Amino acid sequence: xxxxxxxxxxxxxxxxxxxxxxxxxxxxxxxxxxxxxxxxxxxxxxxxxxxxxxxxxxxxxxxxxxxxxxxxxxxxxxxxxxxxxxxxxxxxxxxxxxxxxxxxxxxxxxxxxxxxxxxxxxxxxxxxxxxxxxxxxxxxxxxxxxxxxxxxxxxxxxxxxxxxxxxxxxxxxxxxxxxxxxxxxxxxxxxxxxxxxxxxxxxxxxxxxxxxxxxxxxxxxxxxxxxxxxxxxxxxxxxxxxxxxxxxxxxxxxxxxxxxxxxxxxxxxxxxxxxxxxxxxxxxxxxxxxxxxxxxxxxxxxxxxxxxxxxxxxxxxxxxxxxxxxxxxxxxxxxxxxxxxxxxxxxxxxxxxxxxxxxx
Amino acid sequence: xxxxxxxxxxxxxxxxxxxxxxxxxxxxxxxxxxxxxxxxxxxxxxxxxxxxxxxxxxxxxxxxxxxxxxxxxxxxxxxxxxxxxxxxxxxxxxxxxxxxxxxxxxxxxxxxxxxxxxxxxxxxxxxxxxxxxxxxxxxxxxxxxxxxxxxxxxxxxxxxxxxxxxxxxxxxxxxxxxxxxxxxxxxxxxxxxxxxxxxxxxxxxxxxxxxxxxxxxxxxxxxxxxxxxxxxxxxxxxxxxxxxxxxxxxxxxxxxxxxxxxxxxxxxxxxxxxxxxxxxxxxxxxxxxxxxxxxxxxxxxxxxxxxxxxxxxxxxxxxxxxxxxxxxxxxxxxxxxxxxxxxxxxxxxxxxxxxxxxxx
Amino acid sequence: xxxxxxxxxxxxxxxxxxxxxxxxxxxxxxxxxxxxxxxxxxxxxxxxxxxxxxxxxxxxxxxxxxxxxxxxxxxxxxxxxxxxxxxxxxxxxxxxxxxxxxxxxxxxxxxxxxxxxxxxxxxxxxxxxxxxxxxxxxxxxxxxxxxxxxxxxxxxxxxxxxxxxxxxxxxxxxxxxxxxxxxxxxxxxxxxxxxxxxxxxxxxxxxxxxxxxxxxxxxxxxxxxxxxxxxxxxxxxxxxxxxxxxxxxxxxxxxxxxxxxxxxxxxxxxxxxxxxxxxxxxxxxxxxxxxxxxxxxxxxxxxxxxxxxxxxxxxxxxxxxxxxxxxxxxxxxxxxxxxxxxxxxxxxxxxxxxxxxxxx
Lengths: 360, 360, 360
Hints:
alpha+beta, homotrimer, globular, eight-stranded mixed beta sheet, four-stranded antiparallel beta sheet, about 350 residues
């Protein structure tokens, strides 16, 4: 069961080259995404209504898309407006199945459900990490990971794994604070607090006087951000907001502990889009208010790529163990701190139940 | 559902090398095909009755086939006639499941059904394109295409796709005449006529004064055939005969419009053999009454290979969209001219229904 | 259906390198196998009880195994004894599913069933082919063969195939004696006798005056073993013991026919372990009382590898013909001598029936 009434990230804008038609499977459905000559974004079931040929084998002609097999053309409304060799275009029944599509927060989003689309801004009010002159960064994509989207979401929401999967980058001692989780909304040194909203959970951590035992790559970023000596202790604030069903927002702020005004931040939006019950796409957008310039962006991109491959090795193997079922339908033992994961899973279950009732 | 009471092309004769045993899956059944030392063609279920080992792992010994595992030998009637180390051969129950097999029209044909075989000549009376001194050409095979055989048959039977899939070879303006389809048996300039038989449909096209906008490769063939200038207008006649369930015969005749007596022809028999519901083999035999010699045969073979790869990319993707079902069981919109495809599909459906009734 | 109440070979001891965790699928179950720092062998379901991560992605820390995802540690009893960042270890419910595991006869064995483990020595009393100063040799493994284990067992138990599959190694005329099978326990020249036990079948063969028409590789081994001329006739005794469900013991003794006291022997234990209904692992251990030294061991290993690849080509293709079913559920014709295979299959069927009854 996958949640349908949701805006999902379908693409990074740079994937939509002029004249190109991008194909991506979302919620078990093949979707074609393209831009008309006038710049308008379009998304449709990747299937011509004539003979089921994928639209992705076609081409853009001005403000229409043309099927690559027999040449039928479809306009902005999805209607077939021309068939080569045929005097009159077919009647209204010959039309594409279009999906609502928007560009926001540096991503291309689609609404796959038959229900009227909800407000994307209401869904993600705090994720204003699109283009802004003070913030620098980029986007990335891992397509068709062979794991249920919730395993990726779980991974992003349990930072203790960094000590074991990412010791050379982010695996510092502060990740163990996750096991000292308690309700609340304050930043408490050496602990994590959590606060559940209707469809979100916010977790906050404070680590004072983090020293040289931090993850090496994190430590290097701190030096780059603060221009300080590598070994100088820092204070670190971390806010993680999980939004159902599969968005995770990280905001990390570091400052040297001798000078709280000298601080720098990094913000990452992780968006996981279900491809099927056992596969997903992982998009991220990472921006920072320090070290502007492409060189740092590229260093970060390379490192994020390597780091995420480490995670991928884990949750693709978890999926093999689980098979087609759901991790949480199996006998499991949870540790301290896992309460937020369990709570997130329950939120998703409630949303699915609401979708399957007649009046929803 | 696949039609069983039919002769299907199983191989090109040149695939049956002396002493070799060819394996090919037809109608979901693994078939072994070989020639005895006396030249007799044999076809059987590719499974030894002793321990289910494929016969294709065995060898030909004189006029028997020997299983490669334990050495049992089977004669022309399929009966086991020798077991190494055993004094007496097994009783009659130890026999191969043989299939009727013949060589005709430049192909090797098999009859897979339990019903007595029909007359192959009655099935394909007009396809006399075997070896003849005035006709030159060759054969080809695309094995195990990942598409239902009807998608390939549809493709061969709707030439409008040439404008989009084969613009550099056959995609001339005359392909649009297909959308001006009307009943009849005449050649009408600028149109196509169609005539349905009991198990066949014949389509005819006439294109007068075809000019320089023809498909480039077609244009090159015309120059080769007529020895005329490239830009000289021609008249083109095309006859296409579809025979259920999956044979398509093309006969194209070209002449310079200033001299109707100077004409040349090309004849192609396309034979599509179901491997399973979602895969098929495509055989063709193409002969011409001009430009004799191997060089032209090889040029044509290379071009047919490239051209068909373009089609293959389309219908293997169509199959992905359809899944395990049938294209025509899905919601579809048909265009002008598609009436002949729809009629062909209906013929196949009727044949299937007839096969599944007790008295058929 | 696979037999559960059985010791199966899970690994060769040399696969368990210090600090390594070996993964292998047995009876459709992923199993992790490792050695603690104190040398103790461990085997468990390859799945952490916390979040189903494979243990094979973890590491050995002293006498515990640590999950590679969130760092939980498990001791010799399988109990979780530490979670990083968490003050108290979880309660007893957080434990690995351990399997009984022993090292014996040069192999690592596991007991996968929930029933109490039987005596391995009672199961295989005669297979004392472990390390002994007078016997030289080595072990090998073919992992994840795409065939049901019974097809491999059948193969090892019907030596007539050697004439067809292994003509350049073991395919001599004496293999045909298999088709002259009769009840008994004697060695009878030119024949094979068989004797069925409760869960085993013993077959004996005597071939006097075997000459130059023996399998060439066998002939070369005879020369190596006896130091005699290549062409000198020999007497050959062969004892084959099949033990349910999938162990086959070969003992071959050769002597020059002019000197019965000058004899040499080779002993092989073949152990086939079901991975699933359609895949298995094949282990062997081959020892000899002649030609000590690594060079001969390596020559034999290379040849056994090549010879078994020939068999593999056969039974992986048999499996393709059979699909998911069982060979003996299909219509089959058996030859003379196949009575022992049929008897072995019946023994397996009886064992399966006994396992599925409540009181077994």
